[in-house]
Amino acid sequence: MRANIIQVLKAALAAVIFSLACVLAFSLVVQLFSLSSSVIKPVNQVIKILAIAAGGLLFVRGSGGLIKGAAYGAAAVVLTFLLFSAIAGAISLSALILPEILIGAAAGAVSGVIGVNIKGRD
Length: 122
What we know:
The chain has one domain (2-116). By secondary structure, it is mainly alpha-helical. It has helices at 2-33, 40-59, 65-88, 97-116.
């Protein structure tokens, strides 16, 4: 049980760190190339999904990949939301947070299943 919780926490933190790094790099690209603001939201979603996938592939092992993945995917979305809210200095909840959590859980579940089925990683 404890090992499962540690896997979920590691995967969620890896996803948050990866997401933060990618968003910072993307913000530099936006500044350098004066990209349209309509590009930002879709790219941020892709970054979030890729970050969640990376966390699962790196840290989810053993069995129960679907459950562990869904848990860390949802946790990563919530933690990322809280981190970026803290950076912005304000929490702005919208009706879109629930679908984002569900998408994060789905992405985590898929990568968790893949992560536990990669051979030679136990």
